[in-house]
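Working notes for the structural subgroup meeting. M.R. asked for a predicted model of this chain before we commit to crystallization trials. I am recording the input and output together here so anyone reviewing the notebook later can reproduce the run.

Input as submitted:
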Amino acid sequence: MNDVKVRQVLRRSYELDHERYAVGVELQPYKLTGVVVGSDGVVMARARRHLTVMESKEVVKRVAELAGNLVDDRLGCAFPRSRVCVGVQVGGPVDPDTGTVLHLVNGPDDHRHEKPPPYEWVRYPLGAELASMMGCATAVENDAHAFAAYEQSLGVGRTSATFGVVLVRDGVGAGMVVRGERIFAPMEFGHLQVWQRGRICDCGMRGCIESQVGNRALTAVVKERTGRELDGLEAAVALADGNDSQAGEAAAAFRKAGTSIARGIATLLTTFGPTHMVVYAAKDLLVGGPGHRAANSFLQAMRKFPAHTFHISRDCQIVTKPLDAVRGAHGAALIALQSCFDVRLQPR
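Returned structure, recorded in token form:
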């Protein structure tokens, strides 16, 4: 037993003197999820915090507070910040080279009786502000790219060198890994035009994927088709799944949402030729079966992507996974390890 304790002490001493760590933070509207990982990529601790405001400087303070607490609790208050980095992922376009959030805004939210206060970040230097406050290296990335980084090391990247991730939240994003390398270029997947005479998207264009898909758009479309007041995606799903006279119209909205994703996936397949596409979305969209008309309609339409794809690009497997904020934060930590410390994990 004493030998075991000695080895534990020596191991801890080595970690304090040599190991590098990363904190990954997922920034979503009014909430944060954080994890701390070692250079082996294993999550050592996690935490969640609610935000009362989304003003940029206040968010930086809360991110720094969350990250600092994770480091202090797991590694100790005296652990040198020079061997800790922080990765933050946000649901909007970023410049990862400079750590700048190019645009982050809360969209119109007409299905709620009480709207949260509006916010908008334009070219905000999140990475630099966070580094100044914490005294450590930082990385900033788009949320879909963070999920792609997670999949690269701990998901489908174990069996596929070329794959994509589609992330359905309030909006829709995508990230790609091609021949084992993440594509760093911004991909505005949600604003690919897939309907020639479609709805007007929040971005102002017509027929974008996000004009039909994303929790916000799907709720709005079901409301338009049925004339019902709906308090979010769960209410739209319940209407489609129920016995209401408007259930069929509601289900049609989910079917068109699935077709929108299918057409977007077809574009990625024709362009990059991935063997797998991982679709992250709310559980209500992905768990089908008896009594789940909304999910069945969405999934069946989405899986018809070969009809929109160049014929040699149709051999692709669709993998669906319910959203998990910890995976997004984990992916942000893996990105930070690579970009800040050049620690690159092999798929495992």
